[in-house]
Design goal:
Helix content is 44%, strand content 17%. The protein is α/β, with parallel strands linked by helices. The strands form three sheets. Strands 1, 2, 3, 4, 5 and 8 form a six-stranded antiparallel sheet that branches. A five-stranded parallel sheet has the order 10-11-9-12-13, with helices on both faces.
Length: 381
């Protein structure tokens, strides 16, 4: 087996959400080639040699057992998967992502497909400056000068600005930026399962809605109009107490909190089940309590069509849930979506699960994580 080699790469983007694409390319590189060990600051500079939007650029180091040709192949695949359209033209053009192999250890390679060190490395400040962040004393095996000297001698006069953006070596480091992630959804959508998976995979403190025996719940499913108000009031009291206790207790051994509910669900359900005069009274009390609770950094709503929800409910076999109607589930879905629309200041994410099964299929779980990842990056941008 080939020994691991330190590889230095340059990342650039000037199309679309540049910051998100830099981070996603870094994760893809780590997945295909090996762990990222160093990450530079992110720099911004005008397009050079053509008309286009400003670039974001960074450099990374990773450890890989892949050969130089295998590294190149991986770079090209990642670029293509991220929407990079290469052409036969020798003219520069805008791109979603550009990944260049700068150094492969201390090797000097010159073939029809690959030249290492990168032939333009010493001419580009947008490469040299981020490279100097992570490898200031790394010697160019041809020029016999380290990165700092190459930068000092560079004739590149294009402006280059250091941004406040930060790239993360892996997804764990990114998720560590969270304080509180709320996973919400209709009955039977899988919010508890997803919360447990994320907490386990990323060292999160798990906050689950605790269902104490509620004497009103079976009665409500039998006679909704009669038992709606006492049911919603008892749920509100329980949720408020649980939520404030769980979210106020910091765990030194966990990096963030992930919950399978947000207390705002109380108002959503009450809006469906209560008469207008009952709801008006309920909302006054809820508004007072809601001001005091912790709000999530990201609010994830898992959407599922009603037929699939009914299948899930039937499969898990809770007796008192078997009489839930399709109309009631439709109303809950609409209630959540109306809440998200009416709170544009909240960082909300709707994930459609109609064609996903994150329990059975790892690829679907990866799709869900990627969606949360993008939303988190956008909130940091």
């Amino acid at each position: 087996m080939r020994e691991k080699t330190t590889v230095y790469l340059s990342l650039g983007s000037n199309l679309g959400n540049r910051y998100v694409q830099l981070q996603q390319s870094l994760f893809a590189l780590a997945k295909r080639l090996g762990p990222v060990t160093q990450v530079s600051a992110v720099y911004e500079n005008p397009a050079s040699g053509f008309q286009g939007g400003d670039f974001l650029n960074a450099c990374i180091a990773l450890e890989t057992a892949a050969s130089p040709s295998e590294v190149l192949a991986a770079l090209l695949v990642i670029e293509q998967e991220m929407g990079r359209q290469r052409s036969d033209s020798k003219n520069y053009e805008s791109r979603t992502i550009d990944i260049d192999l700068l150094y492969y250890g201390e090797e000097i390679i010159s073939t029809a497909a690959l030249t290492v060190p990168h032939p333009k490395l010493a001419e580009r400040n947008f490469v040299l400056k981020p490279l100097a962040d992570i490898a200031p004393q790394y010697y160019h095996p041809i020029h016999q000068k380290d990165t700092r000297n190459l930068l000092q001698e560079s004739r590149d006069s294009h402006p280059l600005n250091k941004t406040t953006l930060r790239l993360f070596t892996d997804r764990q480091a990114l998720f560590d930026q969270l304080h509180f992630l709320a996973i919400e959804g209709t009955i039977g959508v899988g919010k508890t399962t997803l919360s447990k998976k994320i907490a386990a995979d990323f060292n999160g403190k798990l906050v689950l809605e605790r269902f104490a025996d509620n004497p009103f719940l079976p009665k409500f499913y039998q006679e909704p109009s009669r038992f709606a108000f006492p049911l919603e009031m008892s749920f509100l009291a329980d949720r408020y107490q649980q939520f404030t206790e769980d979210t106020s207790q910091f765990d030194l051994f966990k990096n963030f909190m992930v919950s399978d509910y947000d207390i705002f669900k109380s108002l959503i359900f009450a809006g469906i089940t209560l008469q207008k005069d009952e709801f008006d009274l309920y909302r006054k009390l809820f508004t007072f309590m809601y001001k005091e609770v912790k709000k999530p950094d990201i609010y994830v709503y898992l959407y599922q069509n009603t037929d699939r929800l009914l299948e899930n409910i039937q499969r898990r076999g809770r007796v008192y849930e078997q009489n839930i109607s399709k109309d009631y589930l439709d109303q809950i879905n609409r209630g959540y979506l109306d809440f998200i629309k009416s709170h544009p200041q909240q960082t909300s994410l709707i994930i459609n699960l109609e064609h996903l099964d994150f329990v059975k299929h790892p690829a679907d779980y990866e799709t869900v994580l990627s969606a949360i990842e993008v939303k988190l990056l956008e909130s940091l941008f």
